[in-house]
C-alpha cells in the first residue's frame, strides 16, 4: 500500500513537471501586416503605388488569342490555334505536383506565333496590348473590323516555404501584386517571416533577388510590388520557429529523463524495500 501511495505521488509530480515544461515551451505571437498603419479608424495613411508597366512577351510564353469577325466560319478557323499546351504546375489554378494544360499559342524560339490567314507574327518583346493591335491590323486585311483579345495563358508565380498552400499558381490577370499571390496561396503561416519576404525574378537571363518587408507599407511602393511571370516568392521561417524546434527537442529530452528517473526510483523501492 505504501508503495502504491509513493508511486501515485511521484506520478503526480512527474505530470505536473511535464505540464510546466509544455506550457513554457509554447509561445504566442501577434500576426499582422503593415504595422506602421495607425491603429485607429479615424486616421488614414496614404501610400503611393509604384508605376506599373505591362509584362513583356518572351519565348515559351503561351498566349491566348481570340479573334472575332462577322464571318462565323472564319472565327472557327482563326481561333483553332488556341491548342492545349502543357504548362507546369498551376490554381488561380494550383494543381500541387501535377501539370496544367492551358489553351493558347506557344511563342517559339524565334519569338513568333503562327496564326491562320496571317502566318508568322513576331510577338517577342511586345506587351499583350501591342500584340493585340498588331494581330488586329493583320486580320483586318482579310476581314472587316475584327475584334482581337490577347492575354497570357501561363502567367505563373511560385510561392514556397512557410505558406499555407505552397505551389505554383497561374494568375488570371496581368497586374497581380505580392498581396494577391499570398492571398491566393492561403497567406503566410504564423511561422513565416512577414518582414523579410524574398522575391526572385528572371531579368535578361539572370536571377534578380530582393526582399520585401510586409510589416511596413513601404512594400506597397516597391517596384517589385507588382509581379511578373515566373516570379518566385519565398517565405522563410521565423527565428522563433527555428528556436522552437530546438525547444521541443529539449522538452522531449527532459520528459524522457524524468520518466527514466521515475522508473529508476520505482524499481529501487521495489527491490530494496
Written account of the structure:
The chain is of the alpha+beta class and 273 residues long. It has helices at residues 2-25, 72-78, 128-139, 178-184, 239-272, and strands spanning 62-68, 83-86, 101-106, 112-115, 119-122, 147-152, 156-161, 167-170, 197-203, 206-212, 231-235. The strands form three sheets. Strands 8-7-11-9-10 form a five-stranded mixed sheet, with helices on one face. A four-stranded antiparallel sheet has the order 2-3-1-6. Strands 4-5 form a two-stranded antiparallel ribbon. A hairpin with a 2-residue loop joins strand 9 and strand 10 (206-212). Helix 1 runs antiparallel to helix 5 (239-272).
| Strand-residue proportion | 15-25%
User: What is the distance, rounded to the nearest whole angstrom, between the alpha carbons of the first and last residues?
Assistant: 12 Å
Q: What is the structural class?
A: alpha+beta
Q: Uncertain runs with pLDDT below 50, 5 residues or more?
A: none
Q: How would a textbook summarize the main sheet?
A: 5 strands, mixed
Order of helices and strands: HEHEEEEHEEEHEEEH
What is the number of domains? Answer: 3
Query: In CATH's first tier, which class of the largest domain applies?
Result: Alpha Beta
Regarding quaternary structure, what we see is single chain
**General shape:** elongated
Amino acid at each position: 500500500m505504501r508503495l502504491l501511495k509513493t508511486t501515485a505521488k511521484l506520478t503526480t509530480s512527474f505530470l505536473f513537471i511535464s505540464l510546466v515544461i509544455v506550457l513554457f515551451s509554447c509561445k504566442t505571437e501577434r500576426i499582422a501586416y503593415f504595422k506602421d498603419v495607425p491603429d485607429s479608424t479615424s486616421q488614414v495613411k496614404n501610400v503611393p503605388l509604384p508605376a506599373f508597366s505591362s509584362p513583356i512577351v518572351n519565348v515559351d510564353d503561351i498566349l491566348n488569342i481570340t479573334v472575332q469577325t462577322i464571318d462565323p466560319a472564319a472565327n472557327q478557323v482563326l481561333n483553332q490555334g488556341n491548342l492545349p499546351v502543357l504548362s507546369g504546375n498551376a490554381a488561380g489554378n494550383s494543381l500541387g505536383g501535377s501539370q496544367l494544360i492551358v489553351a493558347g499559342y506557344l511563342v517559339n524560339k524565334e519569338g513568333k506565333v503562327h496564326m491562320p490567314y496571317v502566318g508568322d507574327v513576331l510577338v517577342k518583346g511586345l506587351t499583350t496590348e501591342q500584340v493585340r493591335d498588331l494581330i488586329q491590323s493583320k486580320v483586318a486585311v482579310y476581314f472587316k473590323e475584327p475584334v482581337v483579345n490577347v492575354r497570357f495563358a501561363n502567367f505563373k508565380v511560385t510561392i514556397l516555404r512557410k505558406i499555407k498552400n505552397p505551389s505554383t499558381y497561374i494568375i488570371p490577370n496581368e497586374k497581380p501584386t505580392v498581396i494577391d499571390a499570398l492571398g491566393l496561396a492561403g497567406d503566410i503561416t504564423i511561422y513565416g517571416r512577414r518582414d523579410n519576404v524574398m522575391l526572385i525574378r528572371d531579368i535578361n537571363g539572370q536571377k534578380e533577388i530582393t526582399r520585401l518587408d510586409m510589416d511596413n507599407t513601404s512594400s506597397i511602393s516597391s517596384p517589385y510590388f507588382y509581379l511578373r511571370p515566373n516570379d518566385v516568392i519565398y517565405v522563410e521561417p521565423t527565428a522563433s520557429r527555428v528556436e522552437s524546434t530546438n525547444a521541443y527537442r529539449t522538452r522531449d529530452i527532459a520528459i524522457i529523463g524524468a520518466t527514466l528517473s521515475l522508473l529508476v526510483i520505482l524499481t529501487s523501492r521495489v527491490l530494496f524495500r
